[in-house]
Amino acid sequence: MMPQHHEDGDDTDAMLARLAPPPQALAMVARPFTVSAAALRELAQPDAPAPPALAGAVLKRQVEFAAGRWCAARALRRSGYRGPPAIGVGAQRAPCWPAGYLGSISHSKGWAVAITAASDTLSGVGIDLEHCMDDRTARSVGAHIGNAAEMAVGAAAGLAFETWTTLLFSAKESLFKALYPSVGRYFHFPDAAAESLDREGRVLHLRLTTTLTPRHHAGARYAIDFALGRQRLVTRCLVAA
Fold first, then answer.
1. Fold of 24-120
2. Subunit structure, per the record (predicted)?
C-alpha cells in the first residue's frame, strides 16, 4: 500500500474549498463554532427559534443545531430565497426546506456546513463533514459500512483503512441525504456500494444495489465529490434535476 497522504494542513474552510467547483446554482456556507452558552446566543436567530423538542437537549446538541441552521439560512439567501428564515424539522429529524428549495446540513467537532439550491436546478443535494476515525474504530465498524470488495477499492487507491472507512461512511451519508427527499424512507449502507475511486480527481462513484424508486433503481450510479484534510474529510452528492 502507498504511504498515507492527506492534504496539507487542517484548515477546514480550505478543505471545503477543494471540493470540485459546484454548479452556479449551488450555495455553500460553513463556519466554526465552540460549544458554549455564549456561542449559542451568538448563533440564535430570533425569527427562527429552535424547536421545542430541542429545549431539553444538552448544550452541545443545541449549539450544533443552531450552527447548522445559521449556515443553512445564509445559504438559502445566496440561493435566492427571501422568505422567513425558519427551517422546520420533519420526519426522522430531517430539515424541512422551504418550497422551491432543497439543501443539506452537516456538523462535526466544531464546524458546521450547509448547501442549498433551487429545486428546479438540482433534484437532490447532500453534504457530510466527518472527523476521521482512528484505526480501532474503523476496524470495529468497517464491515457494517462496506463489504470486502468495497474495502479493496480504497486499498487499491492507497488510502489507509481508517481514512477509506470514514470516506465511504461519509459518501453513503451524503448519498442518503441527497436521495431521502425523493425516496421518502430510510435506506442503509448495503443499499449502495463503492464502485470506483479517483483519488486525484477527488471523486468516488457509488452504485445502488437496491431499487429505491423507479428513478433511483438498482444499478444507478452517483458521483460523490470529496476532499481530505489532516483530521477531517468532506463529501458532497449532487443529483441532476
1. Ribosomal Protein L22; Chain A (3.90.470)
2. EntB, EntD, EntE, and EntF form a multienzyme complex called enterobactin synthase.
